[in-house]
Amino acid sequence: MFTDEALDSVSIQSQWRKSQQSAQESRGCQTKAVHRAEAEIQTVSTTITGTQTEPRHQATEQLLQQNHNELESPGLKDFLQRVEDRVIRELVRNAKSHAFDGFQVNWEDHSSLVSCLHRLQHPSAVERGLHVTSVSWSCTGAVIACAYGRIDDGDWSTERSYVCTWNLDRRGLNPKQADLVFDTPTAVTALSCHPNQPALIAVGLYSGEVLVWDTSRTQDPILVQSGMSADSHREPVYQVSQHREFGVLSASSGGRVLLWTLDSDQGRLVLIDAYALVRQQVPHSSCTGFKARGSSTVGVTSLALSPWDSDTFLVAPTEGHSVTLRAPAVFSFRPRSGPVHSVHCSPFHRNLFVSAGTDGLAHIHSLLQANPLLSLRVSDSYVFQVQWSPTRPLVFAAATGQGEVQIFDLGRRSLRPAAIIEPGGVGQAATCLAFNCQNHNLLAVGKTDGTVGVWQLSGDLMEQKPRESSQLEQIANQAVG
């Protein structure tokens, strides 16, 4: 039924392809001809010149002849022969003298002893007219913490305030922009950085509350707080101090000194010990006219831990005394004419401390006697804080109500300040200061204009001199006599 059959192929040519090929045209273009040119230059020829000095023997002969003529001045030879024996005797005598032992010549200009490196401020605090109430360096020496409040507000206040920190080692430091800013419900009256942990900052508030912040925590920096209870402070906290062993020590104008330990799990400060300055318990051996009036407690304006004895600390009551507390108070020093704003124990001698207050004087005390060993006139106004140098046994600094910071050197023959940091503005008091224990050439000063000045000290103010420790021992031994 089916058979194979071969058929011829049929091809159909594309008419579209032909039409397209016929429509194509060739086009071409060419750039303009590139012109080239070559040129050569050559430096000008150089010449060599030379000079020559006069013959050496001629110049030497002229100099010797001139010196010979000068030595032959009338009477010079006779004078030298007459005084030769006397000069030799004086030189031998000076070589055996010890009058200038330990003396080092200071070739620096007086004005160059201190220089301002930074002037830090928080714009919001400055606009509101807040004062710098306390400054403290971190244990690394790189971060400065600053507390804001008011020193002239005697009424109860609920005004919000700040604590700011600046890292001076940070690249691109902005003096008008703090690295960290912490808001507080009331004015901050005291501040202290931890001696070992750089992230911990303890603050005391005008409301009587004590807080410890952990600056490494970005969400909730409050590590622990005391809260408001029957055991906590009811008055402004004027001093807080962190200790590497037991925690936080706080003192208030209500006359209570409280010792806290940190319970970070519960987020609160746990009270482990408390002291109260009661009028009847304060020793009266040096307190003539110390009579009870009004409240039975004595307010505390300043506190200082002893670096030599962990269970001993000094407190400055509002009555103008300085009291050594070793649970309970064991000794009282001669009363002052007004409240003591600051006390600080010497880091180089276990029995010495310095105090200052509203009388404008700085008193060097010994723990062995009631009367001061030495008193220096610092200011005609208040002295808000005084602090020993961490490197010079005989040097301390005082912040005054006139805006000056005066640095004294007890090793000098004169009792005048060795250096003065002048006020930056008229009527702006220097309220607080802090030496840097790591970078020894830095000193921070807080002012009532809301600024913190970071000053650089010269080597003369921070490098210990020979026999300086023995001179401090001589001052301390005056108490024995």
Q: What gross morphology would you assign?
A: flat
What is the CATH-assigned architecture? Answer: 7 Propeller
> What fraction, in percent, of the residue positions are helical?
10-25%
The termini sit apart by 151 Å
* Strand arrangement, major sheet: 1-28-27-26
Give me the oligomer status: single chain
The computed structural class is mainly beta
| Counted beta strands | 28
Main β sheet profile:
4 strands, antiparallel
CATH topology: Methylamine Dehydrogenase, Chain H
* Low-confidence sequence ranges: 284-294
Rounded mean pLDDT is: 80
CATH class: Mainly Beta
Identify the CATH homologous superfamily: YVTN repeat-like/Quinoprotein amine dehydrogenase
How big is the Rg?
Answer: 39 Å
Main location: cytoplasm
Protein name: Dynein 2 intermediate chain 2
Keywords: Cytoplasm, Repeat, WD repeat
Subcellular location: Cytoplasm
Tags for this entry?
single chain, 481 residues, mainly beta, Methylamine Dehydrogenase, Chain H, four-stranded antiparallel β-sheet, 6 helices, 28 strands, flat
Structure explained in plain terms:
The chain is flat, with a radius of gyration of 39 Å. The strands form seven sheets. A four-stranded antiparallel sheet has the order 1-28-27-26. The chain has a single domain (110-479), classed as Methylamine Dehydrogenase, Chain H (7 Propeller), CATH 2.130.10.10. With 481 residues, it is mainly β. The protein is built from six helices and 28 strands. The longest helix is centred in the N-terminal third of the chain and has 21 residues, at 76-96. It has helices at 15-23, 56-71, 76-96, 123-127, 459-462, 468-476; strands at residues 114-121, 131-137, 143-149, 161-167, 180-184, 188-193, 200-205, 210-214, 222-225, 237-243, 247-252, 256-263, 268-276, 300-305, 313-317, 323-325, 329-332, 340-345, 352-357, 361-366, 374-377, 383-388, 395-400, 405-409, 419-421, 430-435, 442-447, 451-457. Strand 6 (188-193) and strand 7 form a beta hairpin. One of its GO terms (biological process) is intraciliary transport. This is Dynein 2 intermediate chain 2. Keywords: Cytoplasm, Repeat, WD repeat.
